[in-house]
UniProtKB/TrEMBL annotation, chains A, B, C, D:
One Pfam family linked to the record: HbpS-like
InterPro entries: GlcG_carb_metab_protein (IPR052517), PduO/GlcC-like (IPR005624), PduO/GlcC-like_sf (IPR038084)
Gene3D superfamilies xref list: Haem-degrading domain
Superkingdom of source: Bacteria
PANTHER family per UniProt: SLR1406 PROTEIN
Entry protein name: Uncharacterized protein GlcG (DUF336 family)
Length: 142, 142, 142, 142
């Protein structure tokens, strides 16, 4: 299955709905396909300028390393020099929760969500809510 | 006025509605704020991988030079070496119609739309339709 | 279908076999997946230093724009400023024959081959031979 | 001696043979020449997207600093700010074992292997096995 624009928008809408219900800070949400290319993006009013770049770096970091950024952030905490060096080498990684892999019902990796704007925990919770609302499955499934 | 996410999405939705009505190739549509930072983006199913980059380079090129890319493309045709040099220097310009400045009712520049996927003329027509549908004004107004 | 390493190597081996049979200059051959990430690469002895970069830019240019670089090169010849600007914006395009899209039997785009080292015509002929030898289909099929 | 494509492929094949025998995670293996330019590369099915970039950054980091990345990672742990600054300055270093210098029988430096996909220890063990299988000598020899 290829991630469709309709699915990507469903993920974004549900993630932002949760953010508003929870009173989160203004968020930016990007959905990338399995090759780490953008499918859809939205930045809420009031979110700061680099939120696109950070959200995208979370999502592409997850895809690039094959794990949610929650997992990568934990690994990075115990091996900071290596993770900082690959962040510099790729220019496409942000190590904080909120980059979440998306799988289809068959377990195939079809993309990733990246969210930035509130705490990593909040960002990630909104990402997971968005994926579930679109009828897809987040990183833990694989 | 600051360009809102709601306005950016209205632009994208109307641009894509026109694209579908006109039978255009699959498009990518990005809306940037006045500082050239992404507010919203959508890439239709079947659009190729670099459509985000090209759409963004159209919109940021328009903002960076203060003119729609239709105008910039014409200037570039008569002065190619200079325009190629600034494309290389910035890495954020694409000289083909489809990068269109957005003004509010007071004539203030509030952002730009960039569209890529079909001919420059088609891309630009969809951008202008999107801006008008959102109750905003395209580059010609200024 | 996802392009496998075995398929990528079969493409490279057959492309290089044709190059040797035809007395081509030393070639570099890269195979990218559908997201433009490298799967396999080989640079023949005597090929110059930037052949990887050029071969990769052909393959990623084809994927990024959704057409073989033979087609893109022809378009670029009639619209050089635009194509040079998007080459600068993406940093991942080389406009000469030798970047060829790969489709599976169902017509799905699964990657691209990029070859550099001889003339564009020779590079492309080797790419097409490689794809065919792997039981896959080149860009013309879609 | 210049590193040949045949030698590079022998290194990759033996490294991957060891990886499969040991049940390693899917790996990416790159071989660079003495000027840090790619000679050959393979990414196993299931390896994540950035494995090429990381493997290449290990190999180019080793060549760039004149030591295997095991040595560089140890130095970086005791002087992180400097090593992070050079990682950022070059964009071509990854400080984890798995980047291994290649010497010929005369002790001349002829290239480097970079492997990414499993632990640094596993990656490095596969690199060393590959170099030995090709009749060449790894970093410790110098």
């Amino acid at each position: 299955m290829t991630l469709s624009l309709a699915q990507a928008r469903a993920i974004i809408d549900a993630a932002l709905a949760k953010a508003r219900a929870d009173g989160a800070q203004p968020l930016a949400v990007v959905v990338l396909d399995a090759g780490a290319h953008p499918v859809a993006f939205a930045r809420e009013d009031g979110a700061s300028l680099f939120r696109f770049d950070i959200a995208k770096a979370k999502a592409s970091g997850a895809l690039g390393m094959g794990a949610d950024t929650r997992v990568l952030a934990a690994r990075a905490a115990s091996n900071p020099v290596f993770f900082q060096s690959i962040a510099a080498a790729t220019g496409q990684m942000a190590f904080s929760p909120g980059g979440v892999l998306i799988h289809d019902a068959a377990g195939m990796l079809i993309g990733a969500v990246g969210i930035s704007g509130d705490t990593g925990e909040c960002d990630e919770a909104c990402a997971i809510a968005g994926i579930a609302a679109a009828g897809l499955f987040h990183g833990d499934r694989k």
